[in-house]
Every structure is written in C-alpha cells, then in structure tokens.
Design brief:
The structure holds two protein chains of two kinds. Helices cover 0% and strands 57% of the residues of chain A. By secondary structure, chain A is mostly beta strands. In chain A, the strands form two sheets. In chain A, strands 2, 4, 5, 9, 10 and 11 form a six-stranded mixed sheet that branches. A five-stranded antiparallel sheet of chain A has the order 1-3-8-7-6, with no helix packed on it. In chain A, a hairpin with a 2-residue loop joins strand 6 and strand 7 (62-67). By secondary structure, chain B is mostly beta strands. Chain B contains no helices and eleven strands. In chain B, strands 2, 4, 5, 6, 9, 10 and 11 form a seven-stranded mixed sheet that branches. A four-stranded antiparallel sheet of chain B has the order 1-3-8-7, with no helix packed on it. The chains are: A mainly beta, B mainly beta.
Chain lengths: 112, 115
C-alpha cells in the first residue's frame, strides 16, 4: 500500500526566504505526482503535476522535482511571501485508474 | 475558466438523517472522485467514477453510495449519519483517468456537520 510522508509538518520562515518542502513515497511505481495548496477550511488548489517520466515542473516561483527511483519529490518556493502561507499537500497516483494518496501536508507560515 | 462545482457548500444534519451531496465536474471531464477530509486530516479517497461507471473504491462506508449521471455530474448519498461523518467532502474531476497527464481539479468542498 502506498504511503506518502511529508517533512517538515510545519515550517515558519520570514518573507523573502527560499524554501524546500519534501515529500517521499514508498511505492516508486507511480503514474504522476501532484502538489496542492490548501488554505484553512478551503478547497485544494493544484499547483503542479509531474508525470512519472518527468524530473521537474515549474510554475512561476514554484519548482517541483521528482526522483522516482528514490521515491522523493521536492517543492521549491522562491522568494516566499506572506500570501504563500497555507498547507501544502503532496499526492501520488499509482496507476491509470487509481486515485490519489495524500501526505499529511506541510503547514507553511511566511511572516512579513 | 469553469471549475468544479459542489452543492451545498454547508450542510447541517442530525444523527441518523440522510444527506445528498452534489458535484458538477469541469465541462468535458469524464472522471469524478470523492474525498473525505476530517479535521486536521489529509483527504481520504472514497469512490470514483469514469464514464458513469464506478472505477475505484476506497474507504467508503456501506452507509454511503454514489453515482455518476449521464451529464457526468455525481451525487454522494449518505444515510444513517453519525457524528464521525462530520467532515469536509471534496469532489474532484479529471479529463481522463487513463492518461499520465491526468490532473485532478478539486471543488471547494461541502462542509457537513452532524449534530
């Protein structure tokens, strides 16, 4: 059974810092991996999707990398802003018709 | 751009009552997923539908049932509600579950409170 772990569980940084969120998964035979953002009590916003054949994806200040063989992904956030404060969830999909298995998330707080 | 629509956004029910949650996927998306997120928890997969057929089943209680209709909208029916069913229920849709580029887009969720 796929297990997804995110480290750290919480992170507090001052505005302007670059930061890295980590995600690891136990079954490397994944289809794709998605990073989401969730604000308190709100829905999930998809940030980036990396297919199993890709090594990284970029969107604005966000860069996600994937090392399938080692079962790891990282989300790099450049020049963090207070508006980046949210919980970031990593989720993997194991096969074409399977659903997503989520990690427990990293709660990020960026202080002005 | 059109997003996933869920209704109602908030629902309050008493124990042993029934509830129906509705999900309208993004136009042309053929796959719908339902997730349950308890307080402080990560989303847990309940059930999914591809082209109106159940495609995968997760930790959905027997008291719950769901279906996808001809217009691709989906409904989650919950009966004999328990206090522990209080959670945020998300619906997600995707263009095609078969593709590696399959990206799930989530709705805003329905917050169910059982009293």
């Amino acid at each position: 059974k796929q297990e997804v772990t995110q480290i750290p569980a919480a992170l507090s940084v001052p505005e302007g810092e670059n930061l890295v969120l980590n995600c690891s998964f136990t079954d490397s035979a994944i289809y794709n991996l998605q990073w989401f953002r969730q604000d308190p009590g709100k829905g999930l916003t998809s940030l980036l999707l990396i297919q199993s054949s890709q090594r990284e994806q970029t969107s604005g200040r966000l860069n996600a990398s994937l090392d399938k063989s080692s079962g790891r992904s990282t989300l790099y956030i450049a020049a963090s802003q207070p508006g980046d404060s949210a919980t970031y969830l990593c989720a993997v999909k194991n096969s074409g018709y399977s659903t997503l298995t989520f990690g427990k998330g990293t709660m990020l707080l960026v202080s002005p | 751009a059109a997003g996933v629509i869920q209704s109602p956004r908030h629902l309050i029910k008493e124990k042993r009552e029934t509830a129906t949650l509705k999900c309208y996927p993004i136009p042309r998306h053929d796959t719908v997923y339902w997730y349950q997120q308890g307080p402080g928890q990560d989303p847990q997969f309940l059930i999914s539908f591809y082209e109106k057929m159940q495609s995968d089943k997760g930790s959905i209680p027997d008291r719950f049932s769901a279906q996808q209709f001809s217009d691709y909208h989906s409904e989650l029916n919950m009966s004999s509600l328990e206090l522990g069913d209080s959670a945020l229920y998300f619906c997600a849709s995707s263009l095609s579950a078969r593709l590696a580029l399959d990206e799930q887009y989530f709705g805003p969720g329905t917050r169910l409170t059982v009293t």
